[in-house]
Each structure stands twice: as structure tokens, then as C-alpha cells.
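Below is the data:
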Amino acid sequence: MRFKHSAIVCMSFSLFLPTISVAQEEGENNGAKPIPADLIDDPHVREELGINEFTAPSIKLIFEDLSQLTPLPAKETRPKLPEKMPLDRSDLAIEIGFLIAEGFLAVENNTLDDIEGIAKDLSRYGKALGAGERVNRHAARLLDHAKKRESEKLKEELAATQKDVEIELVQLRDADLAHLISLGGWIRALSCAALAVDRDFTEERANQVFREDVADYYEVILGQLDPRVSKRKHIQELRKLCSGLKTTMTLAADQEPTEAKVKEIKEKSALMSKVALSRGE
């Protein structure tokens, strides 16, 4: 999605550019893929992890401009999570990303009654992943903010949930999984946004889903995961789909988005959602 910050946000972000550029340069020297700059959560970077191989794109920022694409077809694109919890931790991470994304969709669509179920599922998944104590605190706050209809505080709490799970994963020496949480959020956001644009196409709206840099980022990251994860069948398929999306999303300098390309993105993102939740079966 082509996220555009306001002038105020851009000015705030520029204060941290020296730190980010140095860290990204170090990441490039180590073979890491720099995070697309507009998907870096500034407070997260500044206060907790810094820019390093454990930091993943913020799901909050992935959703930041989806308000431009309303109405968002959340119900039509909502995948059904399997009833049983996954046994593999990488699948747990992807599905947590989907759940956090569902929270942002509930806020954007003002369906805050959905937050109760999302919070309960986040607690279950957090416990299974080893971050139960952190996630439980956030789940309680999510319920409180939903009850009070505090949309902005809900967004901040969802972002904090992602951040705290990342920190826990670093401490558990499972930091690779932080990228899969972010990936799950992006897949859910993209499938919803692509359908919204397909239903009401304009070049301006279409620009929100042509993010070849984001598709490229996840393609590279999926190839750099621990081999026990990166060699799983559905992870390899997700990497191929990211590569295909990158090709579809790449526009020449004089080329504008087309309805045909939007349909391709819609179809590939829907398939990506299905593959991501297949658990390699």
C-alpha cells in the first residue's frame, strides 16, 4: 500500500533519519533487507529494539492509510482460522499477525464489538508462543478501550501488542518469528485493500496497493529465516507469491496502475492468505 505521511509526521520522522540510515547501512552490509522507511514505528525503534535484524514492519503503519479505501471489505475477505492451535511456532506467529490486523480492521470499520473475540484469541496465541503475560495485559486493555469506544487508543494498544511480542521473541531467541507476525498483518491488509480498490477503481486508490518495495522486503526476509522455517513448503510458496506480487506491482516511470493489475494483486493476495493459513498441509 502506498502510505503517505502528513507533513507533521514527516518532520517528526526526519529527526530519526541519521540513526535509521546508519543502522540500515549496517544491515545492508550484513545482508539484511532494510525495512521500507514508512513502515518503521518510530517509538518502537527509539525505545526498544533499534533498527536491526529483529525489527519488523509495523502493522499499525501498514494500516495507516487504509481509511482512504473505505468501505473496507473485512467480512468478505476474512479467513477462518483453524479451530485447533497450530503446533509449529512459525504458524502461530503468522496467525498472530492476522489477529492483530483484524483488530485494526475492526477499528477502521467501527465494528468494535469484534474486539472481544480478537482479544481472547490473541491471549490464547500469545500463551502458546511464550508471550502470554505480555499479551494478556494488552488483551485486557483492548477490551477496556473497546468498551469505551476509544478507537485511537485501540490502535496504539494493538501496535504495542506487536512490539511486546517481538521483544519476548528476541528474549526467547526466536526473533525470526517477529517477521512472520508482520507478514501475517501485511497479507491480511493487502487482501482487504486489493478487493476494496477492485470494487471502486481509481488511479489514486490503486496507488495504495502498488508497493513493490514491501513485497520485495518480505520475499527477501522469507529466504533469510532459519532453514527449519524457510524450507517449509508453505513458506517457500509464500516467498514465490511475494516475488510474483513484486513483479505485478512494479510500474515503469511513465506507467499508471490499471484495473487488470489490481485484479492480479487481489487474486494473488487472496491466494497468499490461503497459503499462509495452510500450516504447510
User: Anything to note?
Assistant: Residues 2-30, 44-51 have pLDDT under 50 and may be disordered. Residues 39 and 62 are 6 Å apart (CA to CA). Residues 176-199 form the longest helix (24 residues). The radius of gyration is 18 Å.
